[in-house]
Sequence to fold (142 residues):
Amino acid sequence: MQELTQHLLLHPYLAALAAVLLVAVIVTELRNRGQGSGGVSPTQTIQLMNKGALVIDVRANDAYAAGHIGDARNIVAAELAAQAEALKRYREKPVVVCCDTGVISGGAARRLATLGFTQVANLRGGLNAWRQENLPLIKGAR
Fold:
C-alpha cells in the first residue's frame, strides 16, 4: 500500500488521468444501462415497422429532409411533449424514436415513456447505425 501511495505522489498527472478515465468509463456504462432494454437495432426496427410501429425522427426539419427512415414522422425533440396528444393512438403500440446518434432520441424515448407510452424504444446508434447497415433513407420532407 505504501508503494502505491508513493507512486501516486511521484506521478500526480498519471494518477489524475487514471481517475478521469475511470469516471468516463463509469459514466458511459451508466448511460448505456439507462438506455438498456429500450434500445433496438436497425433490424429490430424494421421488424417493428412491419408490425405497425410508429417511427419518430426527433432531428431538425432540415436534417429530416436530408434523409429519414421511410414512414418516420418528424417531431423535433423540443416539441415532443406538446405533440404527445396528437400521438395518443400510439400509446399502447410500438414506437421507435431516432436521431443521428441515438443520444437525443434516448432522452426523447424516456420522455414519451413518462407521458404514458408503453412500448417506446430508441434506435441504438441512431441513423448512423442505420446507414452502416446500408438501409435506405428517403430524401425530402413529407
About this structure: The chain has two domains: 2-34, 37-132. The domain at 37-132 is CATH 3.40.250.10 (Oxidized Rhodanese; domain 1). The CA atoms of residues 38 and 84 lie 19 Å apart.
